[in-house]
Amino acid sequence: MTGMPGMTDNPLRNPFPDLEIHPLRSARWPDLEDLFGSDKVCSGCWCMWWRIPRSQWRRQFGESNQQTPYRLVQERRTPGLVAYFNGIAIGWVSLEPRAGSGSSQKDRRHG
Fold first, then answer.
1. In 3-state terms, what secondary structure has residue 17?
2. CA distances (Å), 68 to each of 9, 19, 61, 73, 77, in order?
3. Neighbours of 99 (CB within 10 A)
4. Distances (CA, A) of 67 to 4, 47, 56, 72, 88
């Protein structure tokens, strides 16, 4: 027993049955837009801070940054995962191979 309510020693048992994690695909794009809407989580960033050089990120802050992950989804690439609780998008994590991380490659703190 792990000490957390609902947790067991069985690693296959989901202790949070109302929580789901899904790759971002075209059908889920509206959920990310809702999560990242203009007055919500990250107005303007769209998790591009880690993917592109800083100068480009500043130039395209806002709608242009939004178009970059959208383009990845349209190219059938998976830019990240969306978390849902009771069917509502509540979280996001951006994923990509380290070699594709434009800004973090130039930042010594993330090397």
1. coil
2. 41, 27, 11, 9, 11
3. 7
4. 40, 11, 13, 9, 23
Tell me the CA end-to-end span of the chain in Å, nearest whole number. Answer: 37
Q: What single DSSP character describes residue 87?
A: T
pLDDT at 22 over 90: yes
* Between 98 and 26, the higher pLDDT residue: 26
pTM of the predicted model as reported, rounded to 2 decimal places: 0.68
The tens digit of pLDDT for each residue in 61-96 reads: 877 777 888 888 999 988 899 999 999 999 999 887
Distance, in Å, from the CA atom of 78 to the CA atom of 93, rounded to the nearest integer, reads 11
Instruction: State the pLDDT at residue 48.
Output: 80
Torsion of CA 95, 2, 89, 42, to 10 degrees: -60
What sign does the CA torsion over 35, 39, 44, 101 have? negative
